Each structure stands twice: as C-alpha cells, then as structure tokens.
Amino acid sequence: MSDTVEEIQNTEETQDFSGNYIDKFEDKNLEEFFCGKLESWEKIENTFLFHGENATLELAIFSSHILRFRYGHDGYFEDDFSYAIDPNYQPQDTHYIFEEDEDLISIKTDVVECVINKADLKTKIKDLKGTVIQEDEKGYHWQDHKYYGGTINISTKVLQPYEKFFGLGDKSGRLNMIGQRKELWGTDCYGYGADTDPVYKNIPFFMGQHSKIGYGIFMDNTFRSFFDFGKERNEACSYWAQGGEMRYYYIHGPKLIDVIKRYAELTGKHALPPKWALGYHQSKWSYYPESVVRELGAEFRTRKIPCDVIHLDIDYMDGFRCFTWDKDRFPDPKKMISEMKDDGFKTIVIIDPGIKVDKKYWVYQQGMEGDYFCKRMDGPLLKASVWPGLCHFPDFTNPEARAWWGTLYEGLVETGVDGVWNDMNEPATFEEGTFPNDVRFDFDGHPCSHRKAHNVYGSLMARATSEGQKMFLDNKRDFTISRSAYAGIQRYASVWTGDNSASWEQLRIANIQCQRLNASGISFAGSDVGGFIGSPDGELYTRWVQMAVFHPFFRTHSSGDHGDKEPWTFEEKYIDIVRKFIEMRYEILPYVYTTFWQHSTTGAPMLRSLHLEVHDDPESFFREEEFFLGDHILVCPISEAEATSRRMYLPQGVWFNYWTNEELTGKKEIKVKAPLDQIPLFVRAGGIIPMQPKMQYVDEFEFDTLTLKAYKPVGTTESYLYEDKGDGYEYTQGDQSVKTFIAELEADKWKITQKVKGDFEVCYKKYELKLHGIEQAPTSILLEGEEVIKKGRYAKKVLTIELPIDFKEIIIT
Ligand code: GLC
C-alpha cells in the first residue's frame, strides 16, 4: 500500500506528541480482509444489501447513470451523512432489471449493468453493449490498524488498457494522472511545484476513460485519502481512506463532460455570482494604508486599465485580528470603501480562521462565551500560531459555530465590504502545519477528531462565510473565495490556487490546475496572475494576463515582498498590451457571464480541457495547454519566454483565428503566430460571441449597441446569451432572458435565427452583427424576409449589419 515499507515497531517512533501517527500509517504487512461470499441479500426500495461473510455491500441506484456503493464491515454502516452532497439532490426513481443465477447477480439500468459475483462480492460495471468499464481487482478490502485502532478502507480496481485519469481538484502535476499517486490532505504548500502533493484542496472525485467510455468515481470520505493510478502496481487502480467507510458513487458518462455534469447534480453548482466578480481583481499582500488603496484606484482610472475589485490582505486588520480594522491605517473604512465604490471599485477583505487569544478582543470573547472553538481531546482549547500569534480556531463543523461566524460579517457588510477572501483554512498553523489529530469536532452531530474533519474544514469555513454575508447583503449576491476546499465547495465559494511562483512553469501549472478544478466541479477558479512568490518580468506577466482573461476568476495577487505587480510597474510596451487584454475581458463579459450561467444551470465546466469537447479524438487526451472557455472559444497560452509563435492542437471541426479571421480545419497540430500582443485564440465555426464595449468596470455605463461576432457555420451551431441584472436574486423569479442564436449554412445561405425566452430589459437598443468568414460582399441580406442589403458594410472579409434586438431571422447570401 505504500512507497515506504516501514514496519511499525514501536509507538514512540510512530506517534508524536499530538497523536500524529498517520505518516507511518500504511503498512504493507497488515492483514487484508475481504467481503467473503454472499450469504443473503435484501432490498429496500432502490437499495440492495448484499450480505457477505465479512462485510455488507449496500448498492443504491440513484439514477440510470449513478450508483452508490457503501461497504460496512463488522456488521454496521456509518450514519448516512455527507457535507458534499447537495441537500437538494434527490435520487431518481429508476427503472432497472434484476437477474440472479447461481454465480452472479445482475442489476441493469437503462445505461449500465452492475454484476456482482456471489463467490466474493466483487463487482463489475459494463455498458449495455457488454464493454467492461470498471471491474474489481482486489475489490473492496480493509486493514485493521493496530496503533490507530481503526481501519483503512480500500477499493482496488483493474486498470484497463490505455486508461486515463482526470480530476482530483487542484493537483499541480500532469493533467492525466496515469502512473501517479495522489493524496488528499489539505496543506498550506507555499511555493509548491509540479511534484508537490498534497496541495490545498481535497476533492475525492476523479474520472477514468478508456474504450471511448468515461466514468467518474466520487469517494465521499473526508479522511486523509489516496488515489493510486497504476503507480504501485501497473495493473491496478486503488483509492482508499484512513478511516470512515468506503462510500463511493459510480457516475457514468460515457462522455466525460456528462460525468462532470452528473457529479454537479450530486454535489451542486456555483450560483451566479455578482457580475463584478467576473471583472478584473487587483490584490497584493498588502495594500495599506488607506492612501495607498486610493492611489491604487486612481492609478487604474487615470491609466484607463479596467479593474473592478481591490483586495485587502491581512494588514488592514488591527494586529491581524479578524473582523477589526487598523484604525491608523484605515481611520474611516466605511468612507473609503464608499468613495472607492463611487469610482467603480468593490472591496474584498481577507478573513482567516485563527482568532487571536486576547481577552479584550470581542470576537475572542464571543467565541469563548459561545464555546465555538476547537478543543483537544482531553479538554483544553486548541492553541496554535498563525499571523496574530497564538489563536483559537472555530469548529466550523459545529452548526452553531457556523451560524455565529456568519453573524460576524454584519460589521464588514455594513462597512461596505463586497466580498470575502478565506485563507489559511486547510487549516494551516505555523507550528505543526495543521491541527494535531486529537482535536475534537462536532461534525454536525457526529463527534470526531481532526483526522476526519481536516479535509472539510476549509469548505465549512467558506460555507459559514457565504451564509453569513447573505444574511446582511440585503438581497445582493455574496462573493467568497477560498483556498482550501472539500467536494461541494462550489455551492458556497470560488477558489484560487494558492501560493504559486513567478515562473513560466508555474504559468503552465496554473493552467492545468484551473482546468482540473473545472473538471472537479469547481468552475469559478483562478491563479495568482504573475505568481504570488517572486517577480515576473513584463513578458511573463503579460502572457499570464492573456491566459487569465479566459480563466473564470481573474486576479493579480503577489506576496508584495518581491517588488510590485500592478500592471503599470512593467515597461510601457507591456502596459499597453496588458490594458488591451484586461479590456478584452470586459468586452467578452457577456460571453463569460453566459458561460457561468450555463455552468450554474447544467453543471458544465466553464473551462474545458480538449478531451471534454472532443472526447473521441485520442490526441485530445494528451494535450493539456489548449482549453475551451465555454462552447466556442479555444485558447492556447504562450508558456515560454520569447516565443512569438507556438505549436498547438486544433481539434476536429472548423475554426477561425480570432486575430486574423483565417479559417482553419482541425484535427491536426498547427503552428500559430503569437506576437506579444496576441494569444492563440480561435472561435468555433458557427459560434456567436456576444461582446460589449470596453469599460473600466462592470456596468460602468449603459451602452446602446451589443456586438454579436458571428463566425461562418458548418452545418448548425447554437449559441446563447444569458442576461439579468448582474446582481440580486430577481432572476430566480424570472427577471432574466436567454437568447438562443442558431446559425446554419446551406449552400451559400447563412441563416441566423434568434429565439428569446424571458423579458429582462436590456440597456442596449440594437445589435451590431459582425459576420466573419465571408469571402466577398453579399448579394442579398434578408431580414425577416425583406431585402436590407444597403444596411450592411463589408470590409476586410467582415460584414457588419445593424439589427433590431428582437430580430427573428436573417439570411445572408
Ligand atoms: C497566504 C495566502 C496569500 C496571502 C498571505 C497573507 O500565503 O495564500 O494569498 O497573501 O497568506 O495573508
């Protein structure tokens, strides 16, 4: 089970003062126990209990695509409780066929068949054509661990030929995890690299793909866990946790993108954020005092570099006491925030979990009075150091502590703060890295130790933060960003990838992490643009900005101790390009917001690695730099110094180079020019990209023309435009609209139709339709059947036509 075959011989060596014996937890020599042969079975609604000699398999049919496996040994199951599953999720009443013969039991839904071997309770999942998708090798087994006094629960499957593995949150190594082992134990990993593991987040969801079939496994277990994709033995894939029960969901595709959508049904989606949160954010550790923040804002506006949000890092606080202000640095935060707001800036503040032990500090006092802080197993409060010195830490697994934590945001919201940045919530401490294992937690009424609560701590802090802000935001949308996470975090927060560094390799890692987070249910993700540690040169910073324009969360952040990283701190030639790209983010905002809406309604990831869009092209599985933002935009960042072109894979289909309008046919590697002011950027044939004028911040002004950039189709392509107020919840009552544009090409007729659902009132009065890919001036333009040729302008192969926003059909010949 482990790389380190170390015999556990004496407890002194294996157990430190805090009970942290789990580093030497795994021992290959421990006896393995197996389910044994089937003795009896029973059925309760859509759930079967297969009782083996030594363990019971509970198989629940959640839908034709989702099966849940739980294993209980020693005669019992744990309480069926989960922080990850969306409380609104309901298993579906599912049609299936049950068959039994002497050796096997078969349960067949309309999509997959699960076969259970009576001799040993091993399972096999096949599609209805009989292709084996997943198959127990050793299957479920466990080891009793003498020193910890509990079990390690393991599931071992056959590694299928050419199987590839994706997902698992923010892992920084190769996108396809074949041949690797990964660990989930959220860690403050300052300056991490491609080989660092574990990192900050704990998302026990991965996807496998082989034989053109994709599936997902979500192991809903918060203990320290491991995923071995053929590293230990190249014929096996195993996943295991150091405690709890083996509980996993098999999620069928066969397309990987559908696996992700189904995982989102189970664990939830991001709700629409306030639109400003999709603008550009500027951060540094730390902007203070107030005059610096004001100057920063003024500089953005004077230089006409768009920006929506300024982040205040820990130095705004009074001695790092959360929910306080340093009155010398920020004498009147309310006034400052309000005046910044007048200039279009939102303010986000950082909040860490550590509460300074200081009996004169009101948060400390309330925490003590309410008994909300974590305790050691033998009674005393846990004390460990973070920024403010010795701290106590709320038990966010206690619903009362969460509710209390929520109330603390009243003051910040009242001061005008628009969003909250939760950090150090792995939880991180300076002495031992994290809490000792004996620390006690409530776990919503399932008392446990840190071993079980660690991996979910960050998510629950973010949850309390999000729920708290909502109470005071007067029907505005909340915004939370978190460094640590467990599965399901997307219901409460966005995430960033933590303390990366300023290097080209780290730009590539950031791109992989953001794609992987998106594939793991967390679309609203971004990296510290330019790298947190160190200082990028102008070229690296520019290339990173160009990439991050197309990542959902877009923020420059830096540790501040290695020089400045505001856009204007680089040489003039870079400033202009950075400005142009940040402006571009604002121009494509209608598309970005629509893509977010698609995620929040369907669960589709906003960023999509190539294999999610072109799952039947084997080449797409080996590419990790190219990615899609939404349905139609394909990007491949420049990730090397001094490059003015790069090779990339253009997937099957027809594509338009955004910069040159060149039409290209895919399924091949191409070389693309990318001078410093361009990133390789392509739009799918038939795609329509809604664009607005550039602005300095979201909703800076009302505009009267919305541009629709349309690219000549091949066959039929649909595009969407989702609109609402960009804040508030009226959209849930119907104050929204969805426009569907259908582009079709038949012979030389290019037809675009528009269907509108909903009647949200937009500010613009007309569309400017820009048609790309037209080789010559058109001979006829029919709008709702009437000739309007004179209203079009044709230049440089782009035809521009003004259209009423309620047009239904236009045909260009
Ligand atoms: C952590 C965070 C970083 C932040 C710093 C100070 O290192 O990851 O983003 O700036 O703490 O709060």
What's a quick, concise take on this entry?
This protein has 813 residues and is of the alpha+beta class.
Distinct small-molecule ligands in the complex: alpha-D-glucopyranose
Helix share bin = 10-25%
| Biggest sheet character | 10 strands, antiparallel
Q: Number of helical segments?
A: 13
CATH class of the domain at 275-352 and 398-427 and 447-602: Alpha Beta
Gyration radius, rounded:
27 Å
Question: What is the name of the CATH superfamily of the domain at 275-352 and 398-427 and 447-602?
Answer: Glycosidases
CATH topology of the domain at 275-352 and 398-427 and 447-602: TIM Barrel
Q: What do you see in this structure?
A:
- Among the domains are: 14-160 and 213-253, Sandwich (Immunoglobulin-like); 275-352 and 398-427 and 447-602, TIM Barrel (Alpha-Beta Barrel); 702-812, Sandwich (Immunoglobulin-like).
- It is α+β, with helices and mostly antiparallel strands and 813 residues long.
- The radius of gyration is 27 Å and the shape is globular.
- Helix 6 packs parallel to helix 8, helix 7 (409-415) packs parallel to helix 8 and helix 10 (538-548) runs parallel beside helix 11.
- Strands 1, 6, 7, 8, 9, 10, 11, 13, 17 and 18 form a ten-stranded antiparallel beta sheet that branches.
- Residues 1-24 have low confidence and may be disordered.
